[in-house]
Amino acid sequence: MSDERRREAVELFEEAYRAQRDEDYERAIELYRRSIAVYPTAEAHTFLGWVYSFQERYDEAIEECLEAIRVDPSFGNPYNDIGSYLIAKGNFYDCVRWFKLALEAPRYESYAFPYFNLGRVYEMRGHLLKAARHYGLALEQQPGYEAAALSLRRVQSRIN
Fold this sequence. Notes:
Largest sheet: none
Number of strands: 0
CATH class of the largest domain: Mainly Alpha
CATH architecture of the largest domain: Alpha Horseshoe
Order of helices and strands: HHHHHHHHH
Number of helices: 9
CATH superfamily of the largest domain: Tetratricopeptide repeat domain
Structural class: mainly alpha
CATH topology of the largest domain: Serine Threonine Protein Phosphatase 5, Tetratricopeptide repeat
Distance between the termini: 58 Å
Mean pLDDT: 97
Helix content: over 70%
Radius of gyration: 17 Å
Shape: elongated
């Protein structure tokens, strides 16, 4: 692929992200798709899935994340996102595998998210010690992660 096509794809991606932030989801979807058509990236597929999730189109969101993984299996975000979408669909078991895969991904900016999500799942399933451990791991990764701190305190109070 030429550098020009990559630049065009990045510009479309950035425009899509702006539309997403402005909650213009249909425009964001169109722009992410155009970016993918020019030069497919794991990021564009993952973010397209994210927009679908805002519309509660979880199956389509999961499909985009699976495509992101096919494009770049080292990118951690789609693994975590699949787990999150499974939780949204009420599946508190299959999601665990995806969060663990996110933790193994070499290219991921915040391992705090899959740790936190594992904590949520374990808490929902009544495994409070595991939940506390994973909330704590999320805090080790990102010390200012307020949701993890609040969740850890909540679980600790339930254990005591």
